[in-house]
Design brief:
CATH topology of chain A: Outer Surface Protein A, domain 3
Largest interface: A-B, 52 and 55 residues
Number of strands of chain B: 4
Structural class of chain A: alpha+beta
Number of helices of chain A: 3
Order of helices and strands of chain A: EEEEHHHE
Number of helices of chain B: 7
Order of helices and strands of chain B: EHEHEEHHHHH
Oligomer: heterodimer
CATH class of chain A: Alpha Beta
Helix content of chain B: 25-40%
Strand content of chain A: 15-25%
Radius of gyration of chain A: 13 Å
Helix content of chain A: 25-40%
Distance between the termini of chain B: 12 Å
Structural class of chain B: alpha+beta
Strand order of the largest sheet of chain B: 3-4
Strand order of the largest sheet of chain A: 2-3-4
Shape of chain A: globular
Chain lengths: 89, 209
């Protein structure tokens, strides 16, 4: 299961709906990211979710390739301390 | 001020948007591109440990971001980092002004305003030197003018490269003075919007707070 880092305010700005500047209030970092990452973060803001659930929510086909790309994105978001993985109940 | 932003408050509380947000479907579009590969989706622009949540950082992106950078290719410590300086700095340091590219014996200080920023002969700016206009202290269009002059000089010095170019600065001026106004992404920017945006290049203004 993945979830937003607790306390993350998820503040961002965009000019073109493609590129986003995201401020992490927990770390003080500001990130340049894209709409896909924001979409994932917004979904996780609504509720924690497993990768396969995210695939469905993102209207992605449940294929190994899609899952691999999503896993890569999630790993990147985790690497920036924007999300964290939690044990599945 | 900007065409889309997340509500400032609410922590992790779910939102109930009235319409599909602009990023809806972005992951699908990205992941289903032919030959798509995993690329960096998140670049850290500026790290300021201990920075207050509402502080503005020197974070920068082109007003429309159209073609000004490619998120998948821009890497390196300079991405998003600005070294721009303010109109006040340029006003106080005429010796730092770049030379006129078309006449290297002359400073941009002595360049006529309309050479860079189109305006009519009846305009208060017509035949005024950039070095004169940047010293004017009025609000509204004068505020826009001196901030865009600073932005233009910053771009000439590559302080905001590649995010805000001289051409983009001119576009802002032309758009601001057009009937439709300057609309980088569908919303007209006011004079203060433009000034705040430019101020963001040296870490001031309210654009990022």
């Amino acid at each position: 299961m993945w979830r937003l880092m607790p306390g993350l305010a998820l503040r961002y700005r965009t000019w073109d709906n493609e590129t986003y500047v995201l401020y992490n209030n927990l770390s003080g970092d500001t990130h340049l990211t894209d709409a896909a990452a924001i979409e994932v973060l917004e979904l996780l803001r609504q509720s924690p979710a497993a990768a396969r659930s995210l695939l469905s929510a993102l209207q992605l086909d449940d294929t190994p390739d899609s899952l691999a790309q999503l896993d890569s994105l999630l790993a990147e978001l985790r690497g920036q301390a924007l999300i964290e993985s939690t044990p599945a109940c | 001020m900007v065409n889309q932003e997340h509500p400032e408050e609410g922590g992790n509380a779910p939102s109930t948007p009235a319409a599909a947000p602009a990023f809806s479907g972005a992951a699908r579009r990205r992941f289903t591109k032919a030959g798509a590969v995993a690329v960096g989706a998140v670049l850290t622009l500026k790290s300021q440990p201990g920075m207050a949540a509402n502080s503005s950082g020197c974070v920068f992106a082109g007003p429309s971001a159209a073609g000004s950078f490619n998120i998948n290719q821009s890497r390196g410590p300079k991405v998003g980092y600005c070294n721009a300086v303010s109109p006040g700095y340029w006003k106080q340091h005429p010796e730092d002004w770049p030379k006129q590219p078309w006449d290297l014996n002359k400073s941009m200080w002595d360049c006529n305003f309309q050479t860079i920023f189109p305006c009519g002969t009846s305009s208060e700016f017509y035949n005024q030197k950039l070095g004169t206009v940047i010293c004017w202290g009025g609000g509204g269009i004068q505020d826009v003018a001196r901030h865009l002059i600073a932005a233009y000089l910053n771009a000439m010095k590559n302080y905001t490269s590649p995010y805000l170019t001289t051409t983009k600065v001119q576009e802002i001026w032309v758009g601001y003075n057009s009937i439709a106004g300057y609309k980088p992404a569908g919303k007209v920017w006011s004079a203060s919007d433009i000034s705040d945006y430019i101020k963001g290049t040296w870490g001031e203004g309210s654009f990022w707070t």
